[in-house]
Amino acid sequence: MAKEYTEAFQGVIGKTVQESTLWWPQPTRPPHGSPNVVVILLDDLGFSHLGCYGSDISTPNIDKLAKNGIRYNNFHTTAICSPTRAALLTGRNPHATGVSFVSEYDSGFPNARGKIGKDTTLLSEILVEKGYSTYAVGKWHLAPGKEQTNIGPFDNWPLGRGFEHFYGFLAGATSQWQPDLVEDNRRIKQPKRAEDGYHLTEDLTDKAIEYVRDQKSAAPDKPFFTYLAYGATHAPHHAPKEYIDRYKGKYDKGWDVIREEWFARQLELGIIPADAKLPPRNPGVKAWDALSKDEQRLFARMQEAFAGFLEHTDYHIGRFVEFLREIGQLDNTLIVLLSDNGACAMGGDEGTVNSWIAGQGDEKESLEEKLRRIDEIGSPTANNHYPAGWAQVGNTPLKWYKSFVHAGGIKDPLIIHYPEKIKDKGGIRRQYHHVIDIVPTILELIGIEAPETFKGIKQQPIHGISLAYSFNHSDESTRKEVQVYEMVGNRAIWRQGWKAVAAHKPDTLFEEDDWELYHVDVDYSEMNNLAKKYPEKLKELIDLWWQEAEKNKVFPLDGRSLQGKLRAMRGNLAEVVGPIQRVFYPSKTSFHASLAPDLRNKSFEIRAEIEQFTKTTEGVIVAHGDSSRGYAFYIQDNRLVFHYNVSNKRKYVIQSTTELPTEPSVLRFLFVKDGENEGVGKLFSGEQEIGEGRLADISALGYFGGLFHVGQNEQSPVSQDYQVPFAFNGNLKKVIYTLGGYQTDLEAAIEFELATE
User: Fold this and answer.
1) Strands (DSSP E) found in 127-241
2) How far lies 321's CA from each of 314, 504, 558, 594, in Å?
3) Cβ-proximal residues to 559 (8 Å cutoff; 6+ apart), any chain
């Protein structure tokens, strides 16, 4: 929260009021004429996805910002979301902030704690102290997974880091139709159901407008900082059907032709240099003509869903910008619009309709299964992601994808709109810059400096430089000198137009990495590897990489595979061998997945204690997951049910064979593992067995990214046999889990996050 007054009392306190001197402190005010600041952050949006960067996707509102502002074609991020967000909000390189990887991961070293250190102030913390109102709306992903629970701790949630209000979600991804919503420091229910027209992008935009409207009513002369970080266009690619259908048939010609068309449009727009080249397809991407007709039909629909998702997002960005115009604030608002990394290829070669399968080690979705569900793509029942071939198109004309530090992972759109300062409307800027340069730019335009100490803690210096000099000087050389990169072992260094880059193979020695060398000032797409031609230049840059890496706290390098990281991390996870009990009480709100018991590959019992049971008593006792995958224990039609939805195509349902007796006080589900990845489940009323069946695929049971519900299933239904929230209408006292062993599901959360990241 803001410190409203900062001065010590300067009046005189006598024994009476008559003997005293009155004095009122003055509230902190920003410099006269300080602009409002809006940062709009899109997720997994590639360099070419916007219409003003070359695509055929309709983004008229974003394009209008570019037409009346400036676009950058040499702007870079960190290659993955949490580190980019840390760099964007602090102006420091991500390893130095403590966020070198996704926030769910804590390596045990200071550079990968999954949260921003207190020695690196956020822009929100600086501005709220200077008299700004501060609002965060949308994706956060800067609190460790273990801190995203309903009880915090909250010091790494937005309200703990300088924002006065927050509305959005904490994790790396969520359903656009049934999101894991948080307001300020508590989880909340979504305002309405997807069936009634709810979509997260619209909801976030409504909330951003509400915050600004209320602020301008209460304090019209006070500037605001709104950080509007949409979940779009991160998978799942969810959009209203009418938006997706606008692209029906548009991508039937395939990714090879579309990529060439977008490249030609980029040249026509001048957003890439006239001598830029289009690289060959990335390794692993098949020629479109080599695909079967069924594959082409499926993959085209997946791209239609993405395009509809982006156009839908553009519409709501337009609503927010138009609102600023209507209230007379647009000209005095600095709008910065960017993406957090390149387009994402983690849908694999064939895309997904249910990303759970790709993320949990099950057998792959068959082509037949995905085709059967083709009409669900983009809907609440799907968790869809397009194939890598479309991600390659989204990064045109660059190589590789998100998580790589080749250009496809780190070169991203940047649009700055600020009518009071930018006169070269529609201009394109070619100066080399990085996401750490946004904070110093904003501070310069406001006329303030970052504090040397904050709340008694000495602060790291800002690493970025302002790019405000480029606003009206298109031909001026970049003032940036050097930029270091590291992401999951992939490394790069840029200096004075040259770049050295190495893709790291997990679980191999860094000495075995093959470094490449590009003169990027004249080789925009990193086509011509000059490593053999200029070995001295390559050595110079590699040596510089080690120096800059040490300076920016990149060490220790961590090039392990995800499995290696998790094995090392298990020492920090709460694990108990042998039977253990967990007690949960019914709640109107839901719990973060990390609090859910881990039922994988073990025997367990779920015991529900109930009072005042009647034949009309029904509802969910416990549920974990969503319509993509999960389990639910519930009463329906006076029968007890355990429903295990494995992957939206396989399910196991065990139901009591008779109606429940009158007034049971204890209902139980007992599972006994008796084979490899399988076992028998039994239902009990008290000590009376009332149902039995087998469960298989138990290696994933309890391994779900959805919320954990007790006494209701508020959002996406685990079972299609009931409608949400299907709240328990009896007196549920508590639910007791007894497990053969327990390990917090944080590990599962990380693995799922990376699978969909």
Assistant:
1) 133-139, 165-169, 182-183, 186-187, 224-229
2) 10, 42, 42, 37
3) 488, 489, 504, 506, 507, 508, 510
The distance of Cα 386 from the centroid of its chain, to the nearest Å, equals 17
In this structure, is the dihedral angle defined by the CA atoms of residues 560, 561, 567 and 572, taken in order, positive or negative? positive
CA distance 188 to 440: 35
Distance, in Å, from the CA atom of 394 to the CA atom of 421, rounded to the nearest integer, reads 31
Kindly report the three-state secondary structure assignment for every residue of 129-154: HCCCEEEEEEECCCCCHHHCCCCCCC
In whole angstroms, give the CA distance from residue 399 to residue 392: 7
**DSSP string for 334-385:** EEEEEESSS---TTTTT-BSBHHHHHHTPPPPPHHHHHHTGGGTTSTT-B-B
Q: What is the pLDDT of residue 626?
A: 87
The model carries a pTM of: 0.92
Position 559: which residue type?
G
Please tell me the distance from the alpha carbon of residue 362 to that of residue 754, in angstroms, as a whole number. Answer: 16
CA distance 602 to 744: 14
| 46 three-state secondary structure | coil
pLDDT for position 359:
46
Q: What does each C-alpha distance from 423 to 333, 418, 479, 573 come to in angstroms?
A: 15, 9, 21, 55
The pLDDT assigned to 6 comes to: 46
DSSP string spanning 424-454? Answer: STTEEE---EEGGGHHHHHHHHHT----SEE
User: At a CB cut-off of 8 Å and minimum separation 6, what does 336 contact?
Assistant: 37, 38, 39, 40, 414, 415, 416, 438, 441, 442
Q: Averaged in consecutive runs of 10 residues, what is the pLDDT profile of the chain (757 residues)?
A: 57 94 89 96 98 98 98 98 98 98 88 95 98 98 89 95 98 93 94 94 98 96 97 97 98 98 98 97 97 98 98 98 98 98 95 71 77 95 95 98 97 97 95 98 97 97 98 94 97 98 95 97 97 98 98 94 67 52 90 85 93 89 90 96 85 93 85 91 93 91 83 89 93 92 46 45
Residues 6+ apart with CB under 8 A from 296: 252, 254, 288
Match 């109930």 to its residue by tokens: 610
Distances (CA, A) of 89 to 86, 338, 436: 5, 13, 8
Q: What is the pLDDT of residue 757?
A: 42
List the one residue out of 641, 637, 618, 636 whose CA is nearest residue 727.
618
Q: Which long-range contacts (CB under 8 A, 24 or more apart) does 274-278 make?
A: 275/522, 275/524, 276/397, 276/524, 276/525, 277/397, 277/524, 277/525, 277/527, 278/396, 278/397, 278/525
Between CA 385 and CA 347 the distance in angstroms is 5
Q: Is the dihedral angle over the CA atoms 428, 429, 435, 440 positive or is it negative?
A: negative
Q: Which residues of 525-554 are buried (b: 16+ CB within 10 A; e: fewer)?
A: bbeeebbeeeeebbebbbebbeebbeebbb
pLDDT at 579: 65
How far apart (Å, rounded) are the C-alpha atoms in residues 51 and 70? 14
- Coil, strand or helix: which one is 70? strand
**Residue 96 structure tokens:** 């130095």
Identify the burial level of 149 via C-beta atoms within 10 angstroms of its C-beta, where 0-12 means exposed, 13-18 middle and 19 or more buried: middle
Amino acid in position 114: G
